[in-house]
Design a protein that fits this description.
The strands form three sheets. The protein has a five-stranded mixed beta sheet with strand order 5-4-3-8-9. A two-stranded antiparallel ribbon has the order 1-2. It has one domain: Glutaredoxin (3-Layer(aba) Sandwich). The protein has 227 residues and is of the alpha/beta class. The chain contains eight helices and nine strands.
Length: 227
């Protein structure tokens, strides 16, 4: 290498290494935080969910007592399936939750945790559901979490801005949506299923902008088999 070229190379080396380190750090932070910094989608069809192979994000949700629960994929000792739904006011969500009662015991026997993420506030996680769904949830001890802040939905890339008329209609019907992500932030999650292996990586993702179409209980069992 000519002397002048070599000098230029070594003079530029610190800058190159600095840029490389910055890019590497930015990528690392992006992996840890999921899509938390991605703009919220304007509608359900425009969401950009995390995909298979991505590192699952860390996020904070609340349990039925309003206590914080930190989901940290780096500390998992067994697989987890995250199932997001819009809220107890959604009839399709109720149907889906009730259908899954057929496979939840088997998933538990396979040492797989199933966490349901709702847009409702903590005290509405159970009472806001339809009576028959409440019976299933209580009998099988579903693990429900409130994502009323939409923090998890954003991190997973499934949060979108809802039509204001939805909240208005629900309020007129007497549904208690105060404190929900829909009422306070105008946000909803696209119903989704993320299967996360024990290393914290997403092994399966199902996201459908059509809230009427959900992953069936049998299909969820097949997903669990691959975990």
């Amino acid at each position: 290498m000519p002397a002048i070229a070599a000098k230029r190379f070594f003079n530029a080396l610190p800058l190159f290494l600095g840029v490389t380190l910055a890019v590497s750090l930015a990528c690392s932070l992006s992996i840890r935080q999921g899509h938390a910094d991605t703009p919220i989608a304007p509608d359900a069809a425009s969401v950009q969910p995390l995909a298979v192979g991505d590192q699952a994000p860390t996020f904070v949700v609340q349990d039925v007592d309003g206590e914080n629960f930190i989901f940290n994929p780096s500390t998992l000792d067994r697989p987890v399936i995250l199932i997001s739904f819009r809220g107890g006011w959604c009839p399709y969500c109720n149907l889906h939750l009730s259908e899954l009662r057929h496979v939840l015991p088997e998933l538990s026997e396979r040492d797989i945790d199933v966490y349901f993420l709702s847009g409702d506030r903590p005290d509405q996680l159970v009472s806001g559901l339809a009576p028959e769904t409440q019976d299933d949830v209580i009998e099988l001890d579903y693990t429900l979490f409130s994502d009323a802040s939409a923090t998890a939905a954003q991190a997973l890339g499934i949060a979108f801005r809802s039509d204001e008329s939805i909240a208005e209609r629900l309020t007129m019907r007497g549904r208690d949506i105060e404190g929900s992500s829909l009422k306070t932030r105008g946000l909803l999650p696209v119903p989704a299923v993320f299967a996360i292996d024990s290393t914290g990586r997403i092994a399966y993702a199902y996201v459908n902008a059509d809230y009427r179409v959900r992953l069936s209980a049998d299909e969820l069992l097949e997903v669990a088999t691959d975990l």
